[in-house]
Amino acid sequence: MKTKLRHSAVGFLAAFAVVSLLPVAAHAGMKLELDGDSPTNVGTALKMAVILTGLTLAPAMILTTTSFVRIAVVLSFLRNALGTQNMPPNQVLMGLAFFLTVAIMAPIGHELYDSGLGPFLEGKMPAAEAITKGTKPLKHFMIKQTRKTDLALFYDINHVARPKGPDDVGMHLLVPAFVISELRTSFEMGFVLYLPFLLIDLVVASTLMALGMVMVPPAMLSLPIKIMLFVLADGWNVIVASLVRSFL
């Protein structure tokens, strides 16, 4: 059981970091070996700088290749629509977004570990083959969520021939296309979230105007009403369920 849990954690964190960083190094023609017989004759100090820089950027790479972007943006829209300002706190929302990301990406993390990272760490597979096989599950997930027009945009920007299949899509072009597709989707979901709360604000403001209570801020009355309706509708369950289903 402990081994399975350890593999789950490694499969989600380490696998995403490896498949995000190694293709960049391979695309640049650099082999990150720390011995003195490197075929590229790159100094050990320079290699260490590249590795440390890659580790620094690894969290951003992991977050932008998973479901985190959509979840975080939608939850932020929800808080703004409710008008609760800093409630829930940003740390709570980001923590919820992170663990929802772990839950959604866990099957892909297992595939990454089993097909590429695990055999590579055990010495059963060379790095090049591990990269090729390990990136396939992640690529398929990202391509499924990426609009064709967004992906075509970056191929046109780089003046690169269109890929023949999903396995031929370059990660350096897929990642930005995936991110802007996720932003579009999250903004669409945020707009839908705003509508019922906006309607409540309009009804409260119109009622106050009709009663001649122009000095009473509408937010003072609409906020508790929105919170009450959101809780009665089991809003958190509905929002989380909708987010999870949007990736299926």
Quantity of strands, as a count: 0
Count of domains? 1
Report the sheet with the most strands, covering strand number, pairing sense and barrel closure.
none
Average residue pLDDT: 77
Give start-end ranges of low-pLDDT stretches.
1-15, 17-36
Helicity level: over 70%
Shape: elongated
Tell me the strand percentage band: under 5%
- What structural class is derived from the secondary structure elements? mainly alpha
Radius of gyration: 23 Å
Tally of helical segments: 9
> What are the secondary-structure elements, in order, as H or E?
HHHHHHHHH
Q: Ends: how far apart?
A: 27 Å
Which SSEs are present, and which pair or pack?
Blueprint: H1 2-27, H2 44-63, H3 68-82, H4 90-121, H5 127-145, H6 148-157, H7 171-210, H8 218-232, H9 235-245
Helix pairs in contact: 1-2, 1-4, 1-5, 3-4, 3-7, 4-5, 5-7, 6-7, 7-8
Question: Tags for this entry?
Answer:
248 residues; disordered N terminus; 9 helices; mainly alpha; 76% helix
Quick rundown:
The protein has helices at 2-27, 44-63, 68-82, 90-121, 127-145, 148-157, 171-210, 218-232, 235-245.
Please tell me about this protein's structure:
With about 250 residues, this protein is mainly alpha-helical. It has one domain (about 1-245). About 75% of the residues lie in helices and about 0% in strands. It has helices at about 1-25, 45-65, 70-80, 90-120, 125-145, 150-155, 170-210, 220-230, 235-245. The longest helix has about 40 residues, at about 170-210. The radius of gyration is 23 Å and the shape is elongated. The chain starts with a helix and ends with a helix.
